[in-house]
C-alpha cells in the first residue's frame, strides 16, 4: 500500500471571466458510480447552464472527462490536468459555465476552467490516506502501562480493548512503525507478549 491524497471535504468556487460565470463543485468520490451521481446532481442543480464540464480521477486508475460542448481540449482536460497536478485522487470536479455573451477563445476557456477547478480544490483542501496496520495482542495487566508508553512512542492508537483475565487489545499503527513496535513489545516483555502485524488499511 502507498499513501494517497484525497479531498478533505467538498469545495466550491466561482470565477467570472468576461461576464461568463464558472462555478466549480468538487467532491470526494470512491467509485465511478459516485462520480457520475455527483455529475448528475450538479447538472440537475444547474439545468439552465450552457455547459456542465467535468473530470474525475479514481485510485483504481480510472479517469474520465467531458468538454460538454466546449471546444475540444479547452474544458474537461484542463480540469483533469489540475487534479493530476495536485496529486489528488478519488475526486470528481464539475465546472458549470453560464455564458456571458462574450466568446473567450480557446486560451481564455482553458484558463477559466483551470482556475475554477483549482479554486474548488483549494476550498476543499487535501488530506493524506496512509497505510496502517491492525495489531492484536493479549497484554498482562502488569505490562499494560509499559505497553501504553511504547504505543505512544510509536504514535499508535488503541482501537479496541477488553478487560478480562488479560487485556485483549486491537491497536493501530502506521505501516512504517508496525514492525518496530512489535519488536519492541517482544523485547520489553522478555518474550512474554507477542504482537504480530495483521490487516492493512488506509486511513
User: Helices and strands: which structural class?
Assistant: alpha+beta
General shape: rod-shaped
Pattern of helices and strands:
EEEHEEHEHEEHEEHE
pLDDT under 50 segments (min length 5)?
Answer: none
Sheet with the most strands?
A: 5 strands, antiparallel
**N- and C-termini, Cα separation:** 11 Å
- Helix coverage percent of residues? 25-40%
Query: What is Rg?
Result: 24 Å
Strand content: 35-45%
How many strands appear in the DSSP assignment?
A: 11
Oligomeric state of shown chains? single chain
Mean pLDDT: 95
Write out the strand line-up for the largest beta sheet, numbering strands in chain order: 2-3-6-4-5
The number of helical segments is 5
Question: What would your notes on this structure say?
Answer:
It is built from 5 helices and 11 strands; from the N terminus they run βββαββαβαββαββαβ. By secondary structure, it is of the alpha+beta class. The strands form 3 sheets. A 5-stranded antiparallel beta sheet has the order 2-3-6-4-5, with helices on both faces. α2 packs across α3. The longest helix is centred in the middle third of the chain and has 20 residues, at 105-124. The radius of gyration is 24 Å and the shape is rod-shaped. The protein starts with a strand and ends with a strand.
Amino acid at each position: 500500500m502507498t499513501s494517497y491524497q484525497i479531498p478533505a471535504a467538498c469545495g466550491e468556487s466561482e470565477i467570472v471571466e468576461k461576464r461568463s460565470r464558472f462555478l466549480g463543485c468538487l467532491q470526494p468520490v470512491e467509485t465511478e458510480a459516485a462520480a457520475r451521481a455527483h455529475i448528475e446532481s450538479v447538472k440537475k442543480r444547474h439545468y439552465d447552464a450552457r455547459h456542465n464540464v467535468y473530470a474525475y480521477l479514481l485510485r483504481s486508475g480510472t479517469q474520465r472527462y467531458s468538454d460538454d460542448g466546449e471546444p475540444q481540449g479547452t474544458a474537461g482536460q484542463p480540469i483533469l490536468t489540475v487534479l493530476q497536478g495536485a496529486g489528488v485522487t478519488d475526486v470528481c470536479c464539475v465546472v458549470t459555465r453560464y455564458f456571458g455573451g462574450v466568446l473567450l477563445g480557446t486560451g481564455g476557456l482553458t484558463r477559466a476552467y483551470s482556475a475554477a477547478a483549482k479554486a474548488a480544490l483549494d476550498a476543499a483542501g487535501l488530506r493524506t490516506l496512509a497505510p496502517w496496520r491492525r495489531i492484536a495482542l493479549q497484554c498482562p495487566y502488569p505490562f499494560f502501562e509499559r505497553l501504553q508508553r511504547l504505543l505512544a512512542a510509536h504514535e499508535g492508537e488503541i482501537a479496541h480493548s477488553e478487560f478480562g483475565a488479560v487485556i485483549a487489545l486491537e491497536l493501530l499503527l502506521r505501516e512504517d512503525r508496525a514492525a518496530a513496535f512489535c519488536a519492541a513489545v517482544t523485547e520489553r516483555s522478555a518474550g512474554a507478549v507477542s504482537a504480530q502485524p495483521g490487516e492493512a488499511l488506509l486511513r
